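It is worth pausing here to work through a concrete case rather than discussing structure prediction in the abstract. The textbook approach is simple: state the sequence, then state the predicted structure, then interpret. We follow exactly that order.
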Amino acid sequence: MKGMLRIEPTEHAQLLSKVNPSEKVITVVNFWATWCKPCVEEIPEFVQFQKWIVENSNAEISCPVRLIFVSFDFKNEIEKKVFPFLESRNFSGTHYFVDEKQTTFIDGIDPQWQGQLPTTFIYFQGKQKTRIDKTITFGELLTSVKLVCGSD
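Step two, the predicted structure:
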């Protein structure tokens, strides 16, 4: 851990426990990797969204929003590759990396998901509401979150 950025291992059950059904919270989970060019291209969109959560979310929507990132980079690349990558893009918070067999992790998150990257899931009160299997823009992300919040 350096500063306000942490990268921790996670298995699918641990990750899903963070999407708590008792909380009226929207949880956006983005799956990515440094070797995935479309993932890297969408990172600025998530940096902008992370900033929006801090500065504007309470004024624009009635649901709190939590953002979780999960890297599919190899465990031995986290310190030397992933951490510097995130730091150089001004990310903060806790990030995760897959710490179990990838097929087990993917099936545990969503058996219908083939594991393509980037993929973003949006959960509300523990239930998966949306899965986006492509690069997403800030505007698309914001619209998706507002739709989920409005459907509560």
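Step three, interpretation. The helical segments are 12-17, 37-55, 57-60, 78-88, 102-109, 138-150. The first helix runs from residue 12 to 17.
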